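re: the backbone from monday

yeah here it is again, tokenized this time
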């Protein structure tokens, strides 16, 4: 399975990180706090840290992103709009929340490869689609019965949130949701008659 992921510019990445943090409320009050010199300078449109994830890890990240949000008739796959690169930027940030996320994501990627090797004698990123889904189905619902699977489920939940946060902070993600805000309109037609009737206004 070969998937090409679009790389974000530094400007795009900082915008994506801040938008996703706001949308998902993933960043708590300490996420961008004083231990690392105060708030980032959002006017600079630059990220001051290097990406940490290895090429091998990014290959797995890309496959998992596109398993969670694959291409369909409405929108492109997650990797086509730079979500793997967004996740790499996020977990590479030197703030407490992101440092914890890096540890959880890396442990989860190791688990995926170990599970793939155990079941199919191959790394996760090199599996066929049905094999990938078999492993993901095991950890996507949160109904784990062992400590190992509970950790894997928590990883998948975190990764799914990051994937969704990255994807739905893009124009492609907005279009997928049917969001039409920030779009100029020649006229505003107002609520349809059935809505007004339902509200007792017509």
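seq for it, each position gets an aa:
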């Amino acid at each position: 399975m070969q998937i090409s992921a679009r790389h974000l510019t530094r400007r795009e990445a900082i915008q994506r990180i801040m938008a996703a943090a706001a949308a998902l409320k993933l960043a708590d009050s300490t996420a961008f706090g004083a231990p690392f010199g105060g708030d980032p300078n959002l006017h600079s449109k630059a990220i001051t840290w290097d990406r940490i994830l290895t090429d091998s890890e990014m290959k797995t990240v890309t496959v998992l992103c596109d398993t969670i949000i694959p291409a369909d008739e409405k929108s492109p796959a997650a990797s086509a709009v730079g979500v793997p690169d967004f996740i790499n930027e996020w977990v590479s940030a030197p703030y407490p929340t992101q440092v914890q996320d890096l540890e959880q994501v890396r442990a989860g990627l190791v688990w995926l490869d170990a599970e793939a090797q155990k079941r199919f004698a191959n790394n996760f990123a090199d599996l066929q689609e049905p094999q990938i889904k078999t492993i993901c189905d095991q950890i996507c619902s949160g109904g784990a019965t062992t400590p190992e699977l509970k950790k894997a489920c928590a990883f998948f939940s975190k990764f799914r949130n990051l994937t969704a946060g990255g994807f739905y902070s893009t124009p492609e993600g907005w279009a997928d949701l049917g969001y039409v805000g920030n779009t100029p309109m020649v006229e505003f037609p107002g609520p349809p008659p059935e809505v007004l009737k339902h509200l007792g206004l017509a």
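The chain has one domain: 10-198. The radius of gyration is 20 Å.
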